[in-house]
Amino acid sequence: MVLADPELAPLWQRHLVRMEVVRGHANQVGAVARLHYEERGRSYVMQDELVECEPNRRWRSRVSGNGLSAVVETRLSHAGSGTEVSLTWTGRPDRWLARLVFPLFARALRRGVDADLEALERCVEQRVQRSEPDA
After folding, report:
1. Which pLDDT does position 135 carry in this prediction?
2. Is the pLDDT of residue 12 over 60?
3. Three-state SS for 5?
4. pTM of the model
5. Per CATH, is 2-131 categorized as 3.30.530.20?
6. Engineering a disulfide at 44: which of 27, 57, 66, 105 sits with its beta carbon 3.0 to 4.6 angstroms away?
7. Positive or negative: CA dihedral 11, 13, 16, 19
């Protein structure tokens, strides 16, 4: 599954260079991963701890680093002949000044998440096409 594969995460998450599972196993509660990003020439690392998981349905992680603490929930649900992905971030910047200006960046963050979800859709479609037998 593309969404749950750490090696495929950089293919659909902007600025993510590598997702490195450093404790436990991917998609198992308690797993911890380091998320290595590069954005505008600046590298930074965030930590992602999987706190809840219903395989192929729902993941809930605690993400921290680079001045941000958040809980991220990803849900999959059937939608006609496809699958709908919903992504919910609950959190805020750790620093008070960043908290003041964060609302100004909310729209840009939403656009970024939308772009990531579109990239995820393309990645899934490409994998499906490769797995289909030739006619």
Report:
1. 42
2. yes
3. coil
4. 0.80
5. yes
6. 66
7. negative
Structure tokens at 133: 């037998």
Listed by start position, the domains of the chain span 2-131
Q: What is the pLDDT of residues 96-132, one digit of tens each?
A: 666 666 666 667 777 888 888 888 888 888 877 777 6
Q: Burial level of 59, CB count in 10 A (0-12/13-18/19+)?
A: buried
Give the count of beta carbons closer than 10 Å to the beta carbon of residue 103.
8
Task: Please state whether beta strands 32-39 and 16-23 pair in parallel, antiparallel, or not at all (unpaired).
Answer: antiparallel
Contacts of 15 (CB under 8 A, 6+ apart): 37, 38, 39
Token pair recorded at residue 113: 């998440």
What whole-number distance in Å separates Cα of residue 6 and Cα of residue 10?
Answer: 8
Angular region, 126: left φ>0, alpha ψ -120 to 50, beta rest: alpha
